[in-house]
Amino acid sequence: EDQVTQSPEALRLQEGESSSLNCSYTVSGLRGLFWYRQDPGKGPEFLFTLYSAGEEKEKERLKATLTKKESFLHITAPKPEDSATYLCAVQARTGTASKLTFGTGTRLQVTL
Amino acid sequence: ETGVTQSPTHLIKTRGQQVTLRCSSQSGHNTVSWYQQALGQGPQFIFQYYREEENGRGNFPPRFSGLQFPNYSSELNVNALELDDSALYLCASGGTAEGSYTFGSGTRLTVV
Fold it and tell me: What distance in Å separates the CA atoms of residue A7 and residue B112, rounded to the nearest whole number?
């Protein structure tokens, strides 16, 4: 069974204090690993898809990396508007094509 | 604007009742998925519809059912509501060129 574990559960940073979120996964053949951002009471907002170990993608202050067992979301010089829950999900090569298996997320709070 | 619209935004039902949630997805995306997100948890896959047929289901009982229509809209029906069905229900439209899945803002269902 596909599994995703995210750590830490919650993270509090001061503005400008860089850090990384971790996503460990087990999957029966990885089709893709996804990062989403979710604000309270809203649906997940797509950030990145990574497909193979060694791949990296960047968007503003965020950078996602992928190895064979885990992914990291690096946040450089965060701002208060980066406060949200960050969700990681995997999609397997076999089984239902669009099924995403999510972790429980990391709740990020960035303070002034 | 996500391109995926869900209605209603909030709903309160009594245990044992039936509920229908609606989703209007982006034109041209013939795959729609439904997820259940309990408070503090990641979204859990309920099922997927492709060209108006269910072609994948997660660990949810048959009282969770759905429909997909030719105009790319979709419904999630839940019969015999239980208190544990209280959650945010998310609809996702799939298959963009980036490999991402676009989520709606969800319907918050409360069962009392």
Answer: 33
pLDDT tens string A28-73: 889 999 999 999 989 999 999 999 999 999 999 999 999 999 999 9
Query: Which pLDDT does position B43 carry in this prediction?
Result: 97
Q: CA of B95 to nearest chain A CA: how many angstroms apart? A: 8
Q: Smallest Cα–Cα separation from A100: which of A53, A63, A46? A: A46
Taking one residue from A and the other from B, the number of pairs with CB-CB distance under 8 angstroms is 77
Q: How many other CB atoms are there within 10 angstroms of residue A2's CB atom?
A: 18
- Would the CB atoms of A49 and B31 count as touching at under 8 Å? no
Closest C-alpha to A16, from A89, A82, A103: A82
d(CA A35, CA B29): 21
Q: How far apart are CA A92 and CA A59, in angstroms?
A: 25
- Cα–Cα separations (whole angstroms), residue A92 to A1, A29, A81, A101, B106: 10, 6, 32, 9, 24
Query: A86 — contact with chain B (CB < 8 Å)?
Result: no
Q: Are A53 and A67 in contact (CB under 8 A)?
A: yes
Q: Where is pLDDT greater, at B51 or A89?
A: A89
Token pair of A90 as six digits: 């995997």
Cis peptide before B43 (omega within 30 of 0): no
**Contact criterion met (CB < 8 Å) for B95 and A98:** yes
Mutation site, A96, A101, A104, interface B, largest B CB count within 10 A: A96
* Minimum CA–CA partner of A9 in chain B: B40
